[in-house]
Design brief:
By secondary structure, the protein is of the alpha+beta class. The chain has three domains: about 70 residues, Structural Genomics Hypothetical 15.5 Kd Protein In mrcA-pckA Intergenic Region, Chain A; about 90 residues, Pseudouridine synthase (2-Layer Sandwich), CATH 3.30.2350.10; about 120 residues, 2-Layer Sandwich (Pseudouridine synthase), CATH 3.30.2350. The chain is about 20% helix and about 30% strand. It is built from seven helices and 16 strands. Strands 7, 8, 9, 10, 11, 12, 13, 14, 15 and 16 form a ten-stranded mixed β-sheet that branches. It has a four-stranded antiparallel β-sheet with strand order 1-6-3-4. Strands 2-5 form a two-stranded antiparallel ribbon. Strand 11 and strand 12 form a beta hairpin. Helix 1 packs across helix 2. The longest helix has 13 residues.
């Protein structure tokens, strides 16, 4: 280790054949981890984005053959996550573990572009007693949920507890129930979605259903309430793949309402008349993320050997969306 401080990250992307024209700011937003469109536009305007060696504009449309070079100025990554005084919604806590209700928009642990403001930073302010079997930036983290998914997360306070909780997740013996509002109505109120899930070859941040590649995934769903053009679903996971619920529902043409990655922010069911479009636009202003909440969590407590179950309230944006639907 030479002690060199990294002050920038360089990314080169070559646009492959078959890629449809797309604004460079939206293209890079989906291709650069933890980025937003406004951050990408700032990079472009500051001259940090080159197309074929030349500066460009946010509205430039990429075409096959383009070579895009992006320079991202960054701060040095801290050795360890730092405690931050961020409010926590603690559902349960004892000397061995915690169950926390994570709000939408909060990253679980520090990573490139998000070294502060994470759940780990908040938990470290609450307690110094956390397992350290993970790398330094992820103390206590037994499992994760997406940044824009709200709901219950389990935190381990010591390595022995962590190992036994992690084994339950690996064996799929935990009970996790998610609630989601998705596009469309279902012919059958209950069902199972089974398909492999693999990374997209076009975008490594995006996953897709596949018959031949990736890992097997099973999602069970049950319709709890129907609306005019959407359904409230209860979902249980037999497996725990990245983006599993979002990918599976999108693969059967019932994407989660508001999901920007898997087709949930466009009209999937219903008319294309201006009145419908206006209504959907207003609903999307309420739900600026995917309408997905990790509602319940059950597991065997490693120390008491008793089965414990925890439940959480739906977040305000979720409840408001339901009322307006």
């Amino acid at each position: 280790m030479n002690g060199k401080i990294i002050t920038e990250k360089k990314i080169r992307i070559t646009i492959t054949e078959g890629k449809e024209k797309e604004r460079i700011d939206t293209f890079l937003q989906s291709g650069i981890e933890h980025s937003t469109r406004s951050k990408v536009q700032k990079l472009i305007k500051a001259g940090y984005v080159l197309v074929n060696g030349k500066e460009t504009k946010p509205n430039y449309k990429v075409i096959p053959g383009d070579v895009i070079d992006v320079t991202i100025p960054i701060s040095p990554r801290p050795e360890n996550a730092e405690p931050e005084d961020i409010p926590l919604d603690i559902v349960y806590e004892d000397e061995y573990l915690m169950v926390v209700n994570k709000p939408a928009g909060m990253v679980v642990h520090p990573a490139f572009g998000n070294y502060t403001g994470t759940l780990v930073n908040a938990v470290l302010h609450h307690t110094k007693k956390l397992s350290d079997v993970n790398e330094p930036g992820r103390p206590g983290i037994v499992h994760r949920i997406d940044k824009e998914t709200s709901g219950l997360l389990l935190i381990a306070k010591d390595d022995w507890t962590h190992a036994r909780l992690a084994k339950q997740f690996a064996r799929h013996t935990t009970e996790r129930e998610y609630w989601a509002i998705c596009w469309g109505l279902f012919k059958d109120p209950k069902g199972e979605i089974t398909s492999n899930i693999t990374r997209s070859k076009k975008d490594r941040k995006v996953f897709m259903a596949s018959e031949t590649e990736g890992k097997t995934a099973h999602t069970y769903f049950e319709a709890l309430q129907e609306f005019e053009f959407a359904t409230l679903l209860k979902l249980n996971l037999k497996t725990g793949r990245t983006h599993q619920i979002r990918v599976h529902l999108s693969s059967i043409n019932h994407p989660i309402f508001g999901d920007p990655t898997y087709g949930g922010r466009k009209i999937v069911y219903g008319s294309a008349l201006p009145k419908m479009k206006n209504r959907v636009d207003n609903l999307l202003k309420i739900m600026t993320r995917q309408a997905l909440h990790a509602k319940t969590l059950g597991f065997i407590h490693p120390h008491t050997k008793e089965k414990v179950m925890f439940d959480s309230e739906l977040p305000d944006d979720f409840k408001e969306l339901m009322e307006n639907l």
